[in-house]
Design a protein that fits this description.
The chain is mostly helical. Helices cover 63% and strands 2% of the residues.
């Protein structure tokens, strides 16, 4: 059984040491990519766009305006995405995992907790919801997820858990996306 890493706040949940070390190494390597000003600029832009799931909410509302025959489906997808983001925020307040402190972040954050990544949660939920409507959602999902690591504000396990939570919260809404009962 792995030893547990002590957290800074006694209310924060500990992590296995093996995961802790791997998370640190990966985020350090990806954060180093942010030394390139172009990469840093892209990470900052994606972080800003993904804050509170904003880019996905705009995409959903724009889809509802442009694709009138499927307006309801776009709006339902937007609701699923917002709901997933909210679920991620709730889990984050329960787990209370601190953000990486061993790298200098490229962006400011709304809170000090990192697990799960709410950016990844809303991006994955949008990929599921809007992907059901034929939108090519995987490249933007991947870009947002990687940007959180390059920005130095999340561990890989935060991003993976956020993406999994986004899929798990949006996938049951697939029938609702098609116009069936919730």
């Amino acid at each position: 059984m792995d030893e547990l890493h002590d957290s800074h706040d006694p209310r924060d949940l500990p992590r296995p040491l093996v995961l802790h070390g791997m998370d640190h190494r990966i985020v350090s390597a990806l954060r180093a990519c942010g030394a390139d000003p172009r990469v840093a600029g892209a990470a900052r832009a994606l972080s800003l766009a993904g804050e509170h799931g904003a880019v996905w909410l705009v995409v959903g509302l724009a889809g509802a305006v442009v694709d009138r025959p499927r307006r309801g489906a776009w709006l339902r997808g937007t609701v699923l995405t917002a709901g997933a983001h909210t679920a991620g925020s709730v889990v984050k307040r329960v787990v209370r995992r601190p953000r990486p402190a061993h790298v200098e972040p490229l962006v400011g954050t709304v809170g000090r907790h990192s697990f799960p990544s709410s950016h990844a949660t809303s991006a994955a939920a949008a990929a599921v919801a809007f992907g059901a409507l034929g939108a090519r959602a995987v490249p933007p999902l991947a870009a947002v997820c990687v940007s959180r690591l390059v920005a130095g504000v999340h561990y890989p396990s935060d991003v993976a858990a956020g993406a999994a939570l986004g899929v798990l919260t949006a996938r049951p809404g697939a029938c609702w996306m098609a116009g069936g009962p919730a």
